[in-house]
Amino acid sequence: MRFRYKISEGCYTYLMINFQEFEVDLVALVYGGDAMGRLPDGRAFFVPFGLPGERVRARLIEEKRGYARGQLLEILKPSPLRINPRCSHFTECGGCHYQHLAYPEQLKTKEAIVREQLTRIGELSDPPVRPIRPSPKEWNYRNAVEFHLDPLGKVGYQKANSHEVVGIRECYLPEDPLNDLWPHLELDPESGVERLDLRLGYNNDFMIELEGIEPNPPEFSVDFPVSAVYRSDVGEMVLSGVDYTLIEVLGYPFQVTARSFFQVNTAQAEAMVSYLLETLKIGDESIVLDVYCGVGLFSAFLARRAGRVVGVEVSSSACEDFSANLSQYDHVELYEGKAEEILPYLDIRPDVIVVDPPRAGIERAALDAVIAMNAAVIAYVSCDPATLARDMKRLIKAGYRLEEVTPFDLFPQTYHIECIAMFEKQK
């Protein structure tokens, strides 16, 4: 089939796309949510929404040198593990990947994927992966949700690998109060609003963030107490209430402004904090460095035990929140800026380093600086097992031993996996 593709005014090229179909036996679930099989030429073939043990018919939609991707057309032989998805939008909206798999099987899959990534990428023959910590709730666990708007102003999600917005009628991931709220929101499609973020604080306080292309905010009115913010290229404007909400973790209230990141699964955020407090040996003489510290989720609890806590964070809004959340501590410091720019010039010798980088992992210069500090213990909080495995290799080469990796399931029904890896410096 031939498509005409316009690359500039008055200039066209023709791209040949091979829409071959294959019958493939799927053998494994891989990081990213796809099931993997093999094409007749031996290349790995990745098919979303398939399961190991299934034979499927799939259309070839993308080809690379060593692999290809397909679109699931028909399940010729279903897996006995396959279940009916709960949501009518599953496979369409792009938000979930595992609704066709019972939750205990999701947990087994994620634990196996962590082990596979550390083995294949990290080159460890027997990585010390502990049992995954399940989410207390497999549905309705998110304290925040991000919607896009379709051309009619209806809230929805973007399709996977696409900017197309799918309007939704239901979603089983947000916490119940958010699910009670969002279906009643009415947005004018001419308002210029492109995105709508909702966040739930404790005592069921709501934060609404509108993001649009117009410099002036749309008309906004609600008949219940709510904090609301409008953000555009020219800045941010508070429409109602304040520009933050409070989220409570283990009884500690955290100020989180609209632009700041916070873990979306509050119960699992508590589990990760508890794990660090149980695992890290910190006393009143200990110096703790918290890199990518955000609003202070870990620092707030570590500061109760340590003699000195130093945070590093690039987000200005998160730094403001950190300062508010840890204002009662005199032995806490905060440096605002990129980790790779601050750490090489930070004159401290921490006993413990906690790193919680974004999905891309630790930037090379930042990791070099972390290694040079020669801390006895490094706790690496990871949201991507592939970049964890990459950085783990460099830490091991620098003389650290991987003691254990504990996965935490913060995102049931999706492929995302959070881990905490504990490294100790070998003497």
Topology overview:
Elements: E1 2-8, E2 11-16, E3 21-25, E4 28-29, E5 34-38, E6 44-48, E7 55-63, E8 67-77, H1 103-120, E9 144-149, E10 155-158, E11 165-167, H2 176-181, E12 193-200, E13 206-212, E14 227-232, E15 235-240, E16 244-249, E17 252-257, H3 266-279, E18 287-291, H4 299-302, E19 308-313, H5 316-325, E20 332-336, H6 339-342, E21 352-355, H7 364-372, E22 377-382, H8 385-397, E23 400-408, E24 418-425
Parallel strand pairs: 6-8, 13-14, 18-19, 18-21, 19-20, 21-22
Antiparallel strand pairs: 1-2, 3-7, 4-5, 5-6, 7-8, 9-10, 9-12, 10-11, 12-13, 14-15, 16-17, 22-24, 23-24
Helix pairs in contact: 1-8
Describe the structure.
Strands 11-10-9-12-13-14-15 form a 7-stranded mixed sheet, with no helix packed on it. Strands 20-19-18-21-22-24-23 form a 7-stranded mixed sheet, with helices on both faces. It is of the alpha+beta class and 427 residues long. It contains 8 helices and 24 strands. The protein folds into 3 domains: 2-82, Beta Barrel (OB fold (Dihydrolipoamide Acetyltransferase, E2P)), CATH 2.40.50.140; 119-136 and 265-425, Rossmann fold (3-Layer(aba) Sandwich); 144-246, OB fold (Dihydrolipoamide Acetyltransferase, E2P) (Beta Barrel), CATH 2.40.50. The N and C termini lie far apart (63 Å).
List keywords for this structure.
single chain; 427 residues; alpha+beta; OB fold (Dihydrolipoamide Acetyltransferase, E2P); Rossmann fold; 7-stranded mixed β-sheet; 8 helices; disordered N terminus
